Amino acid sequence: MDRRLTPANARAALESLRGQVDATRFTPGEPARIAVPLVDLLRDPEGARDRQLIWGAAVTVIDRHAGWAFVQSARDGYCGYLREDQLGAAEQATHWVATPGTHLYAGPKVQQPERAALTLGAQVTVTGHSGAWAETPQGFVPAGHLRPLGDWLEDPAAVAQGFLHTPYLWGGNSRAGLDCSGLVQAALLACGRACPGDSDLQAALGTAIAEGAPLQRNDLLFWKGHVALVLSPTRMIHATAAYMAVVEEEIEMAIARILRAGEGPVTHRRRL
């Protein structure tokens, strides 16, 4: 089983895995939401970052121990550890942040202090409105930056272009930093399309594109450990450590550059 997608650790496993894994304890899991703007999802307590979760993200808590929670993310099934104090109650979200970023304010005025920076995809519970502001239990958000859950954007490539020049960050899933798969996932989720967290898993999305067939907008190009989103038959966008940022490149030039760097040829071409 893939460690990243298996909701089990040495102490507990989800009830759905009974008969498939050995575990000291099986649990139905406890619903919760991320209660901070951004949190690292770790491989082990105090371990390396695998991915990140953002404000309002739904998770299932599988185990709690010594201040740490082992969780599974609802958006993509990814499992890992975070601190218990980064979790909140599983309140029903109503809206999501549909711009690359926004702020949560103390009051419905631009002069009010910001309480948190929210990134694309963050989920909030709107309880009312005050003019152009949406009220949530934690503060106020510009209503124009939100959409109701289920009201998705339409063009993943355009979403990705909203992150141009965002710094590259291994395992990053926010406007503060993205890696290649984080960019693709953010763009697809914003358009209501399911998407795994890592590029090797994303390589199974859609259908294969025949060798030599023209590329189309929103196709995906894969290298070993890397993914890019096609903007046009000749141009792509990706988060790359080569430039430590989200950049646009000519496809043929990028393929040649990556090959010269010893990172191999394109391995998959996929159409969503």
UniProtKB/TrEMBL annotation:
Source organism, top-level taxon: Bacteria
Keyword Thylakoid: no
Domain NlpC/P60: 150-272
Gene3D superfamilies, per database record: endopeptidase domain like (from Nostoc punctiforme)
Keywords, comma-separated and alphabetical: Hydrolase, Protease, Thiol protease
GO biological process: proteolysis
Pfam families, per database record: NLPC_P60, SH3_16
GO molecular function: cysteine-type peptidase activity
UniProt cross-references to PANTHER family, sorted A to Z: MUREIN DD-ENDOPEPTIDASE MEPH-RELATED
Protein family membership: Belongs to the peptidase C40 family.
Protein name, per record: C40 family peptidase
Organism of provenance: Gemmobacter fulvus
